[in-house]
């Protein structure tokens, strides 16, 4: 059986001043995938992770169907299946009036184990990073952990590499520098590479609270309503949490990821300390008439209470340059959360992160770009990225707005429970890449929602 609890041997540290074809900053799923895809494309890659494995990552823990093709392609799917995990066969959506709809995922996808998984990010990220370490080092590259990037190197508006040291930001260890034709920013919502590109070089805003979500997560044991190693994940739009949502995602038999997410600008409109996500969640678990019953015999996993932020890929009204924000430039491409690609309705980010990760290897060629990844290729990457993901992110943003209206959401969920097309649409937001294409049609939305 695969393990995710021991250290990962990443080999020797490269010499100060070493040159690589590609440097990837961030060893989460998007960064590990970007490093793997570029190494498989013949590049000498340096993959950098600031933490030491094993490490936790705060998330809802769902790995949807969009992700699994990449996970399988990189040889990680078999690793997942050799560890405890939860197979998702359906999604339960709940509204403020207590009505729910259970939408079954496509049976053929479930039988092929391609519908979706739910497992702790500590476990999933460990296997993605471990596999990336094998692919990168086999291709002549290097992988380092516990390295904190403190500077992003630039010459004439072109990013040329990074500098940093081992240990935390306050550590006084020697500074090391590494250079590359391409630097990939995969360091999450505060990625230093993305910040340098967006704010430092182009003077554009990195952050917009209308497009950032706060999240809070706990693990619980013994929550009622879940049995076995497969079944539903749940998303509830309930009184006291709207315009955010409350989720229950089993991660293995007997253990459930429980959390709340809300757009930060909406959260700031709430009044009183009781509106913090942590206190909001406590109220749901202890006071809500439905959920207090489901949690009455449950026990929290101590130390699992953590919060974080998610940068949504929703379109900006007046973007200074590219949608959803600038994600590439001379010498640089960004992926995943560093590119602000989280789905604004479902909160799922891994699938879009892996799409962007693979796309970097399409646009970078180590031979023709040996003197530096050019600006014109960066523009092509940004246009292709939004062309691939933009319509579904735009529709997800529309649905995100729908949930603010309790009466509309009550009607929406009620109708979904009676009308197959509505249920399929909701499922497609999370589980099925092909199903999302129908959402790109305004006529489809009109006839699905309004026609009897």
What report would you give on this structure?
This protein is of the alpha+beta class. It has two domains: 19-56 and 122-206 and 323-395, FAD/NAD(P)-binding domain, CATH 3.50.50.60; 64-118 and 209-311, FAD/NAD(P)-binding domain (3-Layer(bba) Sandwich). It contains 15 helices and 18 strands. Strands 3, 4, 5, 6, 11, 12, 13, 14, 15 and 16 form a ten-stranded mixed sheet that branches. Mean pLDDT is 86; it is low at 430-452.
What's this model, at a glance?
The protein is α+β, with helices and mostly antiparallel strands and 452 residues long. It is built from 15 helices and 18 strands. It folds into two domains: 196 residues, FAD/NAD(P)-binding domain (3-Layer(bba) Sandwich), CATH 3.50.50.60; 158 residues, FAD/NAD(P)-binding domain (3-Layer(bba) Sandwich), CATH 3.50.50.
Provide the descriptors you would attach to this structure in a database record:
452 residues; alpha+beta; FAD/NAD(P)-binding domain; eight-stranded mixed β-sheet; 18 strands; 35% helix; disordered C terminus
């Amino acid at each position: 059986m695969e393990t995710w609890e021991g250290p990962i041997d990443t080999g020797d540290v490269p010499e100060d001043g070493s040159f690589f074809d590609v440097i990837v900053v961030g060893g989460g799923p998007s960064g590990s995938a970007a490093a793997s895809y570029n190494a498989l494309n013949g590049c000498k890659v340096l993959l950098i992770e600031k933490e030491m494995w094993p490490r936790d990552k705060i998330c809802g823990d769902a790995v949807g169907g969009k992700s699994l093709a990449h996970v399988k392609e990189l040889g990680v799917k078999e690793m997942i299946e050799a560890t405890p995990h939860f197979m998702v066969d359906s999604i339960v959506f709940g509204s403020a009036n207590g009505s729910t709809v259970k939408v079954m995922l496509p049976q053929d996808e479930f039988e092929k184990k391609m519908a979706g998984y739910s497992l702790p990010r500590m476990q999933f990220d460990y296997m993605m990073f471990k596999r990336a370490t094998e692919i990168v080092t086999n291709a002549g590259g290097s992988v380092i952990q516990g390295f904190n990037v403190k500077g992003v190197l630039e010459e004439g508006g072109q990013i040329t590499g990074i500098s940093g040291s081992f240990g935390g930001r306050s550590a006084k260890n020697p500074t090391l520098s590494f250079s590359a034709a391409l630097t990939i920013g995969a360091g999450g919502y505060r990625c230093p590479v993305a910040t340098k590109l967006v704010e430092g070089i182009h003077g554009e805003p990195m952050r917009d609270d209308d497009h950032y979500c706060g999240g809070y997560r706990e693990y619980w044991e013994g929550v009622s309503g879940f049995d076995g190693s497969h079944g539903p994940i749940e998303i509830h739009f309930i009184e006291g949490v709207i315009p955010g949502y409350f989720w229950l995602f089993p991660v293995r038999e007997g253990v459930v990821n429980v959390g709340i997410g809300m757009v930060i600008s909406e959260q700031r409109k709430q009044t009183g300390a009781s509106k913090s996500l942590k206190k909001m969640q406590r109220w749901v678990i202890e006071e809500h008439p439905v959920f207090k019953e489901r949690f009455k015999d449950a026990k929290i996993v101590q130390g699992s209470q953590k919060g974080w932020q998610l940068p949504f890929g929703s379109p900006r009204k007046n973007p200074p340059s590219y949608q959803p924000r600038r994600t590439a430039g001379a010498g640089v491409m960004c992926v995943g959360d560093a590119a602000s690609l989280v789905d604004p309705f479902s909160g799922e980010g891994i699938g879009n992160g892996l799409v962007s990760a693979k796309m970097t290897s399409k646009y970078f060629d180590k031979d023709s770009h040996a003197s530096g990844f050019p600006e014109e290729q960066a523009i092509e990457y940004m246009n292709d990225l939004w062309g691939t993901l933009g319509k579904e992110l735009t529709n997800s943003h529309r649905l995100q707005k729908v949930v603010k209206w309790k009466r509309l959401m009550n009607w929406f969920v009620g109708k979904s429970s009676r009308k197959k097309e509505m249920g399929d649409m909701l499922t497609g937001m999370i589980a099925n890449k092909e199903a999302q294409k129908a959402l790109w049609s305004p006529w489809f939305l009109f006839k699905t929602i309004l026609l009897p």
